[in-house]
Amino acid sequence: MNTAQHLQSTTTLHNGIHMPWFGLGVFKVEEGQELIDAVKQAIKHGYRSIDTAAIYGNEAGVGQAIAEALQENGLKREDLFITSKVWNADLGYEETLAAFDTTMNKLGLEVLDLYLIHWPKAGKYKGAWKAMEELYASGRIRAIGVSNFQIHHLQDLMQDAQVKPMVNQVEYHPRLTQEELKAFCEQHGIQLEAWSPLMQGELLDNPVLTEIASSKGKSVAQIILRWDLQNGVVTIPKSTKAHRIIENADIFDFELSAEEMQRISSLNDNVRVGPDPDNFDF
């Protein structure tokens, strides 16, 4: 199913926009030189997708890193795919329009590649979606989507939406495979994207994964990230260490067999490291 042959391979969203299969996430990376260096290292080593969010408090640093990396690596703005997200406190039509302007000012960008509703806050996300549809129609955003939406949230949103979400970014790893949600998204042409693909490190000593990693001469992290891609799921592992950023992306020189894929998927026990989207009310 997966067509990711190299680090810059892309999936085509339902509106024709090309999104890299693989990128760098910057969740919980504070503003400062460590953040700037991480983003620049990723771009230098071939990453083309960077994922941030208003609530991460690091959009300005990401913007600075992007500007410096473009200049240093001879790249054009359109070579990169930048994602940000609107936070719960800013959901609502007017609030989302204002939040988007703030995000763009911090990032220093004219156009955002992907803008997501961060969480499905009840009664709030439809107004935000209307604002995002307008921003999309105006060309200020190339693709719009959601994050942490379950099937019933997607169904509710799509009842009134003029534009169907292009992406749903959710917690996704071998212990939380969300098969029904994944199938629903595939049925509706919504690209699934994984956050916390390594379960914040909790999977790295799993015996099944360790055994497969050993047989492939790869790290457990590389096995999990490869499993994501072969499942047709975009993935954005976070790291600030240059060697880890490089290692995470070194997953295009091997394949997992159908049996190995199944063994990894069978680790699912519906365990989350993040909040439950149905009970998250910040």
UniProtKB/TrEMBL annotation:
It comes from the Bacteria. InterPro entries: AKR (IPR020471), AKR5G (IPR044500), Aldo/ket_reductase_CS (IPR018170), NAD(P)_OxRdtase_dom_sf (IPR036812), NADP_OxRdtase_dom (IPR023210). It holds the Pfam family Aldo_ket_red. Residues 33-268 form the NADP-dependent oxidoreductase domain. This is Oxidoreductase YtbE. The lineage of its organism: Bacteria, Bacillati, Bacillota, Bacilli, Bacillales. The gene is ytbE.
